[in-house]
Write a structure and sequence with these properties.
CATH architecture of the largest domain: 3-Layer(aba) Sandwich
CATH topology of the largest domain: Rossmann fold
Radius of gyration: 18 Å
Structural class: alpha/beta
Bound molecules: nicotinamide-adenine-dinucleotide
Helix content: 25-40%
Strand content: 15-25%
Order of helices and strands: EHHHHEHEEEEHEHEEH
C-alpha cells in the first residue's frame, strides 16, 4: 500500500469518467451518440466548415445535458485536496466546467470549456451559459463573424501554455492520480507515462481496465465518486 503522507507534489489528470456520475455522457459510451453521429464526425474543423449549424446543434444539445449536471463527490474531493495540499495541480480533459463549479480554483483545461464561445475571426472568447442558445449558429456581437465553441477539436493542437504547464506538473510530481480517462487520447495519455518515467507513483481510478493499468502502482477499480473520498480520507488519516 502506498504511503500517501510522503507525497509532496500531487498532480491529478481527469477525463470524462469523473463526470459520468454527474450524468455527463462519456464519448465512448452508448449515450455518447447524438442522432446517428459519432463525436469524431462532429467535433472537427472540417465538420464546422461544412455545416456550422449542425455542429452547433450538437453542442447546444451537449450544453443542455451538461447544464443540468452538478459536480459529484469526486469533483468536490479534488477541490478539498487543492485546498489541503501544498503543491497540487489539476489537469482535465473535460470541457464541462464541473471542476470549477465544485470549487477547484486552478484547473488546466487541456481541451477548453464548452461554456466559452470564441470568435472565428478575432479569437476573442467570452462565457455564455445560456441553454439553448437563441440563434444557431451564433455570431460575434462585435464583428459579425461566426462563433465556435472554445474547445479543442479532433485534429487541432492543444493550447500551448496549458499543455506546457501540464507537462511540467507531470514531470515534477511525486504521485499522479489518473481518474476516469481511457488513457488513449493523446497527448493527455502520455502525461502519466512522463510522471512514471520521472519516478512518480501512479494511481488509477477507473472501473474498467485501460492501457495505463499495467503501469499503475495502485489501481482502484471503483467509480470515482466512491474511490476519491475514501482515498482522501485515508490520505489525511493514515
Ligand atoms: P473516455 O470517454 O474515453 O473514457 C472515459 C473513461 O472513464 C473510461 O475509461 C471509463 O471506464 C471511465 N469511467 C466511466 N465511469 C467512471 C466512473 N464513474 N469513475 C471513474 N471512471 C469512470 O474519456 P476521456 O479519456 O476523457 O477522453 C475522451 C475525450 O472526450 C476527452 O478529450 C474529453 O475532452 C472529451 N469528453 C469530455 C466530456 C466532459 O467534459 N465531461 C465528456 C465526454 C467527452
Amino acid at each position: 500500500m502506498l504511503n500517501f503522507g510522503q507525497f509532496r507534489r500531487v498532480t491529478v489528470l481527469t477525463g470524462a469518467g469523473i463526470s459520468a456520475e454527474s450524468g455527463v455522457p462519456t464519448f465512448r459510451g452508448e449515450d455518447g451518440l447524438w442522432r446517428q453521429y459519432r463525436p469524431e464526425e462532429l467535433a472537427t474543423p472540417e465538420a464546422f466548415a461544412r455545416d456550422p449549424r449542425l455542429v452547433w446543434e450538437w453542442y447546444d444539445w451537449r450544453r443542455r445535458l451538461i447544464g443540468a449536471c452538478r459536480p459529484n463527490r469526486a469533483h468536490h474531493t479534488l477541490a478539498d485536496m487543492e485546498a489541503g495540499l501544498p503543491d497540487f495541480t489539476l489537469i482535465t480533459q473535460n470541457v464541462d466546467g464541473l471542476h470549477h463549479m465544485a470549487g477547484s480554483r486552478r484547473v488546466l483545461e487541456l481541451h477548453g470549456n464548452i461554456w466559452r464561445l470564441r470568435c472565428t475571426r478575432e479569437g476573442t472568447t467570452h462565457e455564455d451559459r445560456r441553454t439553448p442558445l437563441p440563434d444557431l449558429p451564433p455570431h460575434c456581437a462585435d464583428c459579425g463573424a461566426l462563433l465556435r465553441p472554445d474547445v479543442v477539436w479532433f485534429g487541432e493542437s492543444l493550447p500551448s501554455e496549458i499543455l506546457e504547464a501540464a507537462f511540467a506538473a507531470a514531470a515534477a510530481c511525486d504521485v499522479m492520480l489518473v481518474v476516469g480517462t481511457s488513457a488513449v487520447v493523446q497527448p493527455a495519455a502520455s502525461l502519466p507515462l512522463i510522471a512514471r518515467q520521472r519516478g512518480a507513483a501512479i494511481v488509477e481510478v477507473n472501473p474498467q481496465a485501460t492501457p495505463l493499468s499495467d503501469f499503475a502502482d495502485l489501481v482502484l477499480r471503483q467509480p470515482a465518486a466512491q474511490a476519491l473520498p475514501q482515498l482522501w480520507e485515508r490520505w489525511q488519516h493514515p
